[in-house]
């Protein structure tokens, strides 16, 4: 690291955002920039430059040039870099968590948790020698003296474009698998939270991957489009909102690339009369208000079935009232700020509209002000609405804020109909101690991730992670075996020897 850059590093948060290309920290050519803002205080932490198509081209060419050599590096040697990356990330966990919490607003515990979930994917990708072996197979004597088998081969340069809400974990859903399987890689993180990636790439730099294998390009929509349209990018992984996911899917496909694009969500939880309500309530509260509701697995509509509704409502109100709102870096905080003022306004508009459509406000966080005047960022207090029905906008649109919508249903069939009424299919949870209710739910709910008494059903790194309907565009999901299938092509080889 240069002396100049060293000086630019505050203990936990750096104030410069650079690209990392060809093993060097580089400054992009740029036409636009934007501040990186601490959402709890409004303090400017750094400025992020939007890389131009020219900078993107340099990064892609660099990654493309080293691909053949990296491909020829034995997979057992490639994964040694990932073992080292795991250690580097673990050593830097506190530093990354603090920066992440400052730039995003989530609590330190949540930041640490997501980094650990990211590291989990590094661990899984360390098993790439075995994963490359699986799913191939071979058959001797398909004809006299002729054998046939399939091998996995990497394809070239891959890119991942990631959202703001998990600044460390989501890049690590892709980076480890892409490079372990022999591809080279370019990350384009969210321009709202680029600092976590800076620190992750300091870990990458410390590991000493061969120059050009792992690259970082910062920027916004134009940077993304330059990646999507570049001839030498083989594949694109995307996570973000559904309209952008659809755009990425269509544009990347039009330019001949393979693409996996994870979109937005609208998740319901159902609590039946057979639920252990005392256990369900903290779980639901964590799902809805954790991460200030800014997660694609938040169950922001909770349906009470039959007689459980009244007890459920009272317990959820009490739990929400006891949450502490504040800056993520403050230890007693449960609910941090929203990422931007625009996000806060959008959520308030959704609440206002729900009230016009007939919902009732039980807890109102719209006018929340922190007692510490320095914390005048984008806070919204925990909000709870009851009487929400599926024809309301708030029951169909992703909220992405600390808002819980309570609804009720006469029976499980009706509840499942409500769950399936949205255009999304990312996740859903049922709270019940009845096996047959759980089975019906798992069978009939159209979502990629289903929790039974689990409110944030985020699959482990060795399972795939992806939604359905408008929550996902593509076929192969992130993580696990799907990642290996996405990042490799299976080639059938048929051979016969005459002497
Ligand atoms: P976003 O779609 O605004 O941005 C995601 C990425 O796309 C960023 O890197 C951004 O620079 C880029 N981008 C934004 N607009 C673009 C455009 N017009 N053209 C090209 N690129 C563009 O999403 P966000 O607000 O950062 O993230 C929140 C969304 O992500 C939510 O909808 C959430 O549900 C979703 N999400 C989904 C999952 C999942 O697994 N399905 C996981 C996390 C987040």
From TrEMBL:
Gene3D superfamilies: Aldehyde Dehydrogenase, Chain A, domain 1, Aldehyde Dehydrogenase, Chain A, domain 2. GO terms for biological process: L-valine catabolic process; thymine catabolic process. GO terms for molecular function: methylmalonate-semialdehyde dehydrogenase (acylating, NAD) activity. Pfam families: Aldedh. Coiled coil: none annotated. The keyword Transmembrane helix does not apply. Keywords: NAD, Oxidoreductase, Plasmid. CDD domains: ALDH_F6_MMSDH. Residues 25-490 form the Aldehyde dehydrogenase domain. Its EC number is 1.2.1.27. It is an enzyme of class 1 (oxidoreductase). NCBIfam families: MMSDH (TIGR01722). PANTHER family: MALONATE-SEMIALDEHYDE DEHYDROGENASE. This is methylmalonate-semialdehyde dehydrogenase (CoA acylating). It comes from Halostagnicola larsenii XH-48.
């Amino acid at each position: 690291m240069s002396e100049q850059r060293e000086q630019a590093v505050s203990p936990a948060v750096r104030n410069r955002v650079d690209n990392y290309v060809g093993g060097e920290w580089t400054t992009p050519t740029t036409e636009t920039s934007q501040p990186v803002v601490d959402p709890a205080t409004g303090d400017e932490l750094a400025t992020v430059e939007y890389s131009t198509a020219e900078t993107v081209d340099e990064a892609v060419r660099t990654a493309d040039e080293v691909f053949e050599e990296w491909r020829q590096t034995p997979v057992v040697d490639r994964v040694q870099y990932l073992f080292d990356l795991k250690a580097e990330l673990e050593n830097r966990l506190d530093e990354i968590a603090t920066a992440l919490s400052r730039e995003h607003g989530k609590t330190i515990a949540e930041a640490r948790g997501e980094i650990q979930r990211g590291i989990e994917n590094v661990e899984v990708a360390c098993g790439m020698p075995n994963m490359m072996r699986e799913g191939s197979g071979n058959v001797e004597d398909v004809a006299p003296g002729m054998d046939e088998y399939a091998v996995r081969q990497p394809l070239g340069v891959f890119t991942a474009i990631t959202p703001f809400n998990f600044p460390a974990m989501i890049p690590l859903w892709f980076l480890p698998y892409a490079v372990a399987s022999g591809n080279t890689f370019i990350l384009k993180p969210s321009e709202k939270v680029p600092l976590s990636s800076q620190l992750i790439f300091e870990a990458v730099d410390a590991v000493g991957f061969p120059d050009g294998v792992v690259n970082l390009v910062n920027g916004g929509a134009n940077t993304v489009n330059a990646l999507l349209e570049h001839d030498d990018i083989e594949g694109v992984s995307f996570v973000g909102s559904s309209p952008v996911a659809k755009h990425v899917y269509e544009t990347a496909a039009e330019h001949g690339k393979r693409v996996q694009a994870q979109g937005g969500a609208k998740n319901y939880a159902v609590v039946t009369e057979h639920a252990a309500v005392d256990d369900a309530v903290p779980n639901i509260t964590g799902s809805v208000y954790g991460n200030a509701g800014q997660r694609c697995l938040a169950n922001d509509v909770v349906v009470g079935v039959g007689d459980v509704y009244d007890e459920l409502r009272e317990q959820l109100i009490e739990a929400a009232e006891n949450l502490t709102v504040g800056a993520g870096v403050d230890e007693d905080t449960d609910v941090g700020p929203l990422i931007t003022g625009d996000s806060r306004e959008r959520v308030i508009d959704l609440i206002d509209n729900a009230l016009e459509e007939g919902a009732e406000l039980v807890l109102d966080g719209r006018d929340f002000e922190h007692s510490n005047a320095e914390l005048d960022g984008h806070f919204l207090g925990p909000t709870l609405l009851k009487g929400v029905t599926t024809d309301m906008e708030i029951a169909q649109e992703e909220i992405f804020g600390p808002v819980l919508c309570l609804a009720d249903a006469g029976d499980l069939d009706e509840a499942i109909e409500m769950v399936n009424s949205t255009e999304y299919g990312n996740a859903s949870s049922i709270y019940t101690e009845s096996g047959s209710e759980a089975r019906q739910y798992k069978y009939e709910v159209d979502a990629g991730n289903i929790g039974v008494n689990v409110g944030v059903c985020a699959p482990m790194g060795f399972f795939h992670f992806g939604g359905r309907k408008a929550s996902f565009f593509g076929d192969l999901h992130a993580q696990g075996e799907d990642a290996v299938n996405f990042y490799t092509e299976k080639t059938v080889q048929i051979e016969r020897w005459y002497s």
